[in-house]
Design goal:
single chain; 286 residues; alpha/beta; Rossmann fold; 13 strands; 36% helix
Length: 286
């Protein structure tokens, strides 16, 4: 089914920008006024993007955004509830890319954390997750690029808890910061990996450059291309403490990737966390 909604492109782009700005305001000291502004725009975008097709929706939604909609945290759009409270949500960066998603036949896990020595929460996250996944994490100086690239090729789960950087000028150089260098999007594009899930517990790891034809360039696309079925990545600079809590909950939860992320985000919502803290991470893949 197709539903058309009339809206001026500049108006939509402006509303998305205001939504992102309102979420960013929640990064500082909390206030009811800031939250009301963010939720008002979340409701307006829900009315434009979700309400017209709501009668056709079931338990699971796969969203294939276009243009600036790639920068919208759809899970935080709000009707009576946040979208993530009513549905399992995942994303595909383009309909064309879905055909290239593999099953993910790797075994074991690779966990990387606090590669620069200044992210204590990320180190705690990596150690706790590695214990749960029955592996030894690569922490601080041990997380060297050649070691990581050699060890990630045949793993089922890859988890990076480190600094990330989105390069708006050349998205192929978007990167994860390791102990002695950088793991860039273009590095992944040259790999053939067997991961079912890659988690980028890093800032702005989901951001991509929009090229002609709505082809996206960035870490998520590169990792999908290299062979990972699912990628979890962030739309903005994340809070270390809430991110650690989110992913510890994620790995405790049962079910498939979208179930686990939904339940982890809902747990933070129930605790009263605002959307800046619980909504940055999205699941890419089906």
């Amino acid at each position: 089914m197709v539903e058309e909604v009339e809206i001026d492109f500049k108006d939509l782009r402006g509303k998305i920008g205001k939504f992102r700005d309102a979420i960013e305001e929640l990064r500082g000291p909390e206030s009811s006024e800031k939250l009301e502004i963010a939720e008002k725009i979340a409701s307006e975008l829900y009315g434009l993007l979700i309400e017209p097709v709501k009668e056709y929706l079931r338990d699971e939604i796969v969203i294939v955004p276009h243009g600036y909609l790639h920068f919208v945290p759809f899970q935080a759009l709000k009707g009576d509830n946040y979208l993530i409270e009513d549905y399992k949500v995942s994303f595909a960066q383009s309909a064309w890319s879905i055909r290239f998603l593999k099953d993910g036949k790797g075994r074991g896990a690779l966990v990387v954390g606090n590669t620069t020595g200044n992210l204590d929460c990320a180190e705690e996250e990596a150690k706790s997750i590695a214990q749960r996944l029955n592996t030894i994490p690569f922490i601080r100086a041990d997380a060297k690029k050649n070691v990581i690239m050699e060890n990630l090729k045949d793993k089922e789960i890859l988890h990076f808890a480190c600094h990330g950087w989105f390069d708006a000028t050349n998205p192929a150089f978007s990167r994860l910061i390791l102990a002695d260098g950088m793991l860039e999007a273009r590095d992944f594009m040259d790999m053939d990996i067997e991961a079912r899930l890659t988690v980028l517990s890093a800032c702005e790891s989901a951001l991509s450059g929009l090229a002609r034809g709505d082809e996206l360039e960035g870490l998520v696309r590169a990792i999908h291309t290299s062979g990972s079925r699912y990628v979890i990545a962030s739309l903005w600079s994340v809070n270390d403490s809430s991110t650690t809590e989110l992913f510890l909950n994620f790995y405790k939860n049962k079910g498939e990737v979208r179930d686990k992320m939904r339940n982890a985000e809902m747990d933070l919502i129930k605790k009263g966390y605002n959307m800046y803290l619980w909504a940055p991470f999205q699941v890419y893949g089906v």
